[in-house]
Amino acid sequence: MYPTHPRSPAGTKPASIALVGAGEFGATFAAQVRRIPDLRLRLVCDRDAARSEAALLRAGYPAAEIAFCSGRATILAAMERGQVAVVDDLALIADLPLDAVVEATGQPEAAARVAEQALGSGYHLALVTKEAEVTIGPLLAHRAKAAGLVHTPVDGDQPALLIGLIARAGMLGLPVIAAGKASESDYVFDPVAETVTCWGRTVEAPGYDRLFDADPQAVLAERFVAGLETGTVPDLCEMAVVANHCGLGADRPELHAPVVRTVELPSVFRPAEDGGILGRTGVVDVFACLRRPDELSFAGGVFVVVETPDRATGLLLASKGIPASKDGRYLLLHNPIHLLGVEAPVSVLSAVRQGQSSGGADVKPRVDLAARANRDLAPGEVMEMAARHAVPAFDPLILPGSSLRPDAPVPYYLAAGRRVLRPVAKGAVLTVADVDLDADSALVRLRREQDAAFGTA
């Protein structure tokens, strides 16, 4: 999962890296990679060349080390001079002396094109855009392996970090009961003001202190505050990615997404017969971290609930401060932070020096992120995405993976932004036949190739 020798032998040339996408994640990667002797950023590609320049300058690259390039010859000349080439055309990254591409566009269609270009040029691929990974990740892993390359999700984002926790539990022989993440915004309860704040919105919550300290199983339903989300589209997307990499499933299509304090996780995410909420084990899920303003945030962190070897061991570990269920049977392993591009160089090093992915060893299209209509949909409506990837007319679901058959659930990111072709009743799962798929989309084309490669066509 991680390179055993982060530093290469003396005399080894640094690996040459291209970054595609100079947004938030890409900018943090550009800043951190300067501190990694075994990696050298050679090229940045973004449709907005000025944004690339600004990201590099903020990261500490002198202006003299940045070269705007318009063709292969100028790119090669800049590389020869030790400069970072800046380009605004994806086609220009083909067939260069590069070892790996870090894709950080944040746009699934663009990410699909970047991935195809990178693997086709013989580069290792670090895919940041989880929306592409959930749709075509298994195919990219399959293509990379066939070409002797590595396709990897990246540390710094939750899927790879959670896959690492799951792998650690597996190495220790600890059965994974549930694996998941905290939503990106905590439920922050202020006992003085009697309010709950989430996603920047504060709601009055008189009497909520009774729910804060109570047995979670007795008050879980009451902890939800109307209008405050506990599981967003990106949360379910990331959990679907982990399921495809690790062979886990979903206990329910919309996930449970409870409001839970960190110390309560091993008591809540355990089988129902033991007092928890799960109908089965080996599942992914999310939660909203309930805390006071003076408590440590878990927003965006990842966790695994495991079964202990025996209850005596569990109780012993609980006495050392490890969160556990009261009977000692279930234990919490967690990582409350994700450092975006600051951690991503670990995954890139793992790929180029060790030939290893930060993802799973057997990536398959086990599940899809799908959509259920939360109101009646009429032909001609366009399903535009809003903040946090929400399509207001959709509720996200994790369903068993299937091909793009007309009657099969349409993958969420193939439906987003597209036109509805026929009436869809409230409560119905959108199918491929319900949506006008983009005939020119690389994402759609690669998804159909994935269906064929894995025998689901």
UniProtKB/TrEMBL annotation:
InterPro entries: Asp/hSer_DH_NAD-bd (IPR005106), DRL_cat (IPR048423), NAD(P)-bd_dom_sf (IPR036291)
Gene3D superfamilies: NAD(P)-binding Rossmann-like Domain (3.40.50.720)
Ranges of residues in domain Aspartate/homoserine dehydrogenase NAD-binding: 21-147
Domain Oxidoreductase DRL-like catalytic per the UniProt entry, residue ranges: 156-343
Molecular-function annotations in GO: NADP binding; oxidoreductase activity
Cleavable signal peptide: none
Highest taxon in the source lineage: Bacteria
Full protein name: NAD-binding homoserine dehydrogenase
Species, as recorded: Skermanella aerolata
